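Quick one: structure for this chain?
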Amino acid sequence: MKHQEIKKYYTLLSLYLAQSIPMSFFSTVIPVIMRMENYSLESIGYIQLIKLPWILKLLWAPLVDRTSKNTRQYRRWIISSEVFYALIIMCIGYLNLQTDFTTIIILMVIAFTASATQDIATDAFAILILNKKERSLGNSMQSAGSFIGTMMGSGVLLIIYHYWGWLWLLRSLGLFVLFALIPVALYNARNGKEPGHSSKNVSPLEFIYFFRQKKIGGHLLLLFLFYSGIIGILTMIKPYFVDLGYDIKEIGVISGIFGTACGVAMTIPAGMFLRKKGILKAVWIFPVINVLVATYFFGLTFTNHAVYLVYIGVALLWGAYAMSSVFVYTMSMQVVRKGREGTDFTIQIVLTHLSSLIVAILSGKVADSITYRGLFAIEIGLGILILALLPFIFKKSFYLRFETENEQAAVN
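Got it. Here's what it folds into:
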C-alpha cells in the first residue's frame, strides 16, 4: 500500500471520527439517563429526532457542490463547519442537563446541522480523492471512524461523564474536534478543477433530478430497507440492558466499548471483501448476516440472559452493522454523477438515515406494546423481506452503467 493511499485513509478516518464522537455521546448518554429516570421507551425513541438535520441536509447539499470546484474548496467547507460545530459543543457544556434540557436539545440540533454540512463536504472530498480500487477501504475508514467515535462517545465518555461531570467532558469534546481537523488542514488538496468535475450547472433542486434517473427506484428501495432488519435492535439495546438490570457503567463496557470495538474490527475485513468481490456479489451476503443477528436476539429472550450470551449478541450486532455500513457507503459512492458528488452521496445516505429514524422511533413503541421479543421478531421479518426483494430491486446493469459513465467522464 502506497504512502499517499495511507495518507488518504488517515485523513478520512480523522474527519469521520471528529463528527461521530460528540454525536454518539449526545445520542447515547441522554437516552440512558432518561431510562434511568423512568422515561418510557417511546419517549426515548423520540429523542432520535435531534438527528433531523442529517435527514434534511440534502436540501443544502447542492449549495456545497455548487460552490466547490475542487478538493481544496470542499476542504474549506469541512474546516469552517467543524470549527462552528466544536464551539457549539463547548457552549453546551455550560448548561445544566436537568434544568436547561430544551436549550440543550436546540443547540444539539444546531450543532448537528453544522456536522451534517461537514459530512456533505467530507463525502464529496472522499469520492474525489479515492479511486475505484481505494473506495472499499476508504469506506472502511469512514465506518471505522464512526464506530470508534461510537465506542468513545457511548462507552469511554459515558464512564468519564459518570466521574468528571458535564462541563469538562464537553470542553474536551470540542477540543478533540478541533484537533481532528489537523490532518485535513495539512492534506495537499488540489487547486485545479477535478477531471470531469463541473459545479456551475448544479441546480439548487439538484436532488430532484437525482430521483428522475432511469431505473433508480430499485436502488433507492434497497438503501431505504437495508438497515431495517437490525436498526431497531441497535436503538433499543441500551434500554434493554437497563431493564435486564445492568447499570450505566456496565452498559458502557458491554455495548459502548466491547460492542463498537467489534464493529471497528469488522470494517477492514468488510472493505477487503468488497475490494475483492465487488458490490454485485457482496449484496447477497450482508442481508443474510443481519437476519441471523436478529434471529439470535429473538432466541436470546428465551434464555436466562447469561453474560456470555449477551456479549456474543453484542459482538454479532455491531459486527453486522459495521459490515453493512461499509457496503452501503461503497455502493452509494458508485452511484454519483460528476460534479454532484456531495449531493448524490448525501441523498443516498439520507435515505438510510430516514429509514433508520423511522424504525428507531417505532421500535420504542413496538417494544412498549409487544415487548422486546416482539420487536426482535419483527426485525427478522424485515430482514427476510429484503432478501425476498433483492432479485427484483438489485439490477447489475444499473450499477455497471454508472461505473462506465464515471470512467468516461474521468477520461474526458
